[in-house]
Write a structure and sequence with these properties.
Blueprint: E1 7-12, H1 16-26, E2 32-38, H2 41-51, E3 55-59, H3 67-77, E4 82-87, H4 92-100, E5 105-108, H5 116-124, H6 132-143, H7 159-169, H8 174-181, H9 185-199, H10 204-213
Helix pairs in contact: 2-3, 4-6, 6-10, 7-9, 7-10, 8-9
Length: 219
């Protein structure tokens, strides 16, 4: 019996040829199903409600409501929908802003099309490493704003969970954490599930940001 898990995808881009290119390069994968397309933020919000996709590929620059604002509005209503921002820019500030709005990933349009699939699969499985650029951006932002008082924020994580979180913050994948910690990859995943449940955060990059901002770890 075929046990392929299908990821339902909504494409959001104001350029028809861009949507077509994305559709063509992803349609060859049996576990990816394009269920809709939107050409602006308003349509994206409507289709997110109507179609309930698993994954939204969101262009960052669109007329009207841009991709960042659209991401924020969709995530407020559908926190379980995974959103990956699409852009032609490699500016890390865009990445940081996208993550602040709730996005789980960031994909440069000019990246080799063959790299899209493994990247998106990693995002969907929440096994994409946290980049050092992201950690640096968090630190830069913190240094340019008044530091909030975090002494009253308790850390609910066990010692083992903190060890796992520190390795996540250093950019290690689940498999690498497994090798470093001498535990199985399934055990790593179970620890991450417990960590995300305790903190109410479902994405490893957001976990890292939360831990850094609250002073639990120092990159």
């Amino acid at each position: 019996m075929n046990d392929i898990k299908i990821t339902k995808i909504l494409i959001v881009d104001d350029h028809a040829h861009a949507r077509e290119a994305i559709r063509e390069q992803l349609s060859e994968y049996k576990d990816f199903l394009i269920i809709g397309e939107a050409q602006n933020g308003e349509e994206a919000i409507f289709l997110a409600d109507e179609l309930n996709p698993d994954l939204i590929l969101m262009d960052i620059n669109m007329p009207g409501i841009d991709g960042l604002k659209t991401t924020k509005l969709i995530k407020e209503q559908h926190p379980n929908i995974i959103i990956v921002i699409l852009t032609v820019s490699e500016d890390s500030t865009h990445l940081f802003e996208a993550l602040k709005q709730g996005a789980q990933g960031f994909l440069i349009k000019k990246v080799n099309p063959g790299d899209w699939y493994p990247y998106l699969k990693s995002v969907v499985s929440d096994n994409i490493p946290v980049s050092y650029e992201f950690v640096n951006e968090v630190l830069q932002t913190m240094s340019s704003h008044p530091k909030k008082n975090t002494s009253t924020i308790p850390n609910p994580l066990s010692q083992r969970e903190m060890e796992i979180l520190k390795l996540v913050a250093k950019g290690y994948t689940n498999k690498e954490i497994s090798n470093i910690s001498f535990i199985s990859e399934n055990t790593v995943k179970n620890h991450l599930k417990n960590i995300t449940k305790k903190l109410g955060i479902k994405n490893r990059v957001h976990l890292t940001r939360h831990a850094i901002e609250n002073g639990w770890i120092e990159p």
